[in-house]
């Protein structure tokens, strides 16, 4: 959902700049700029992708509302009098999971990290003999669910730890 800017090093005497974009979802697109005509062109690019400012000053690409569908390769090619210059980015999108901690029908705590990318690591502060269950979704996200099953029955308050590249969270519940 955030914006992202991919830089493309400007060169003296640029004659042309082209962004070649190959997202994992949908077809490729290109943004082009020709200095001799001071003209920009776009082919098959969504409105969320555009020049950050004027391509003759700064050939950076701005992507608004980054989402999983925009993951892929982004290559900037600058043509100048001293040669052609390329810079390639591989865009990967992190999706923080939605967290839920609840008590199931048997009074066991259940910790759920829903629709995260990559899958979150879910664990309990106290020892538990449970294993996580994972469910993949069509958009590339994964839900991880882990029930707390204690070795002893005198546990009243349990804490779940969720670790993910987007952050680490802890949730506590008494069932």
TrEMBL record:
InterPro entries: CD200R (IPR040012), Ig-like_dom (IPR007110), Ig-like_dom_sf (IPR036179), Ig-like_fold (IPR013783). Its main location: membrane. PROSITE patterns: IG_LIKE. It is found in: Membrane. Gene3D superfamilies: Immunoglobulins (2.60.40.10). Signal peptide: none annotated. It is a single-pass membrane protein. SUPFAM superfamilies: Immunoglobulin. It comes from the Eukaryota. Keywords: Disulfide bond, Glycoprotein, Membrane, Transmembrane, Transmembrane helix. Residues 59-172 form the Ig-like domain. GO terms for molecular function: signaling receptor activity. GO terms for biological process: regulation of neuroinflammatory response. GO terms for cellular component: external side of plasma membrane. The keyword Transferase does not apply. PANTHER family: CELL SURFACE GLYCOPROTEIN CD200 RECEPTOR 2, CELL SURFACE GLYCOPROTEIN OX2 RECEPTOR PRECURSOR. Belongs to the CD200R family. This is MOR1A protein. It comes from Sula dactylatra.
């Amino acid at each position: 959902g955030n914006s992202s800017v991919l830089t493309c090093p400007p060169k003296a005497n640029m004659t042309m700049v082209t962004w070649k974009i190959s997202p994992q979802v949908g077809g490729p697109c290109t943004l082009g700029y020709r200095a001799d005509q001071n003209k920009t062109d776009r082919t098959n690019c969504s409105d969320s992708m555009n020049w950050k400012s004027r391509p003759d000053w700064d050939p950076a690409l701005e992507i608004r509302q980054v989402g999983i569908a925009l993951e892929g390769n982004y290559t900037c090619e600058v043509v100048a009098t001293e040669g052609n210059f390329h810079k390639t980015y591989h865009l990967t999108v992190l999706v923080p999971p939605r967290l839920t901690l609840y008590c199931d029908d048997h009074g066991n705590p259940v910790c759920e990290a829903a629709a995260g990318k990559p899958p979150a690591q879910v664990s309990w502060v106290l020892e538990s003999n449970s294993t996580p269950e994972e469910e993949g979704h069509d958009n590339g996200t994964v839900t991880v669910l882990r029930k707390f099953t204690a070795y002893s029955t005198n546990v009243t308050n349990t804490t779940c730890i969720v670790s993910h590249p987007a952050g680490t969270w802890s949730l506590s519940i008494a069932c």
